[in-house]
Amino acid sequence: MSTAPSECSSGTESVNRHAEELAHATNVVRGYRPNAIRPEHWAPVAQFTCQVGLDLEPVDRRRATETMRTLSQFVVWAHRQGMPLDREAIFTPDMVERYIAVACGHLAESSRATRRSDLRRFSAAVTRKAPWPPRAQRLRGDYAIVPYTPAEVARLLEVAAHQRTALQRRRLTAFLALGLGTGVYPREARSATTDDLVERHGRLCLNISGEHARLVPISPPHDTTLAEICSTDPATPILGFAAKEWDRAPLGHLLEDIDRPLDCPDLKAHRLRATWLLRHLDNRVHLNGLAQMAGVSSWKTFGHLMAYLPLIDEESLFEELTRR
């Protein structure tokens, strides 16, 4: 367990990290060599495809790799169908639909849907004349963030403790401890290591790097869980799982071997985070401080949770509002 840095990461450091990620993403696109495509099929389209990839401006290495994998297979297929290397000819609705129907039959339905969605998004971004409809505004009227109830939390912890193997127990226990104890975003959970567990003001904390760098004290009893992981397996990913750079659903793969009884609540990182937030709202933690710990810059998330806060009786409310 290490000692916390004396100062939080500066805004300049965050900007520099972002610039470095963009530079790495650009290098991934420029140097991309597909493993699943024969060199003689890739060579004629490589320059064209890489330029399309650059124009899509992936923000990090993982997205750059995913973008190029999808683009390369589509462009090679279209070129072998006799299409010219012209964006307006290749990236059309008809070509995308034909590719999904003809060339992606070996993929699972969910994978085909993802590839189709990506290609439609890419195509609309890199063409001007192709007949892509304007993107419709997303309707989020039914969107909801639902925290776990105390009974659901207890059941999740029980399920984690009774997994068949030590690795399954480690992964699920750590996943729950990070979500319920620190409210991390999914990408932060999968990158956290035991070296990120530090002490500050006599409390175990998680030092989170990235876009929303911050130091978060770990809520009990999850601090004990993470301390035990740090002690027994130092210098490792907290989740006991290292995601591949290209993996589109790393947490899904992390949890796919978990034994889930029929009465086990669904495992959702955003629900763990909401549960963490609600606990601190219920304990009347300072809102600005909680927003900082949650890595948010607006009150939108808190608004989703208001319906789950306990009511206060009128007399107590009046007393609080008239405190001197």
TrEMBL record:
InterPro entries in alphabetical order: DNA_brk_join_enz (IPR011010), Integrase-like_cat_sf (IPR013762)
Keywords: DNA recombination
Top-level taxon of the source organism: Bacteria
SUPFAM superfamilies: DNA breaking-rejoining enzymes
Protein name, as recorded: Site-specific integrase
Organism of origin: Oerskovia merdavium
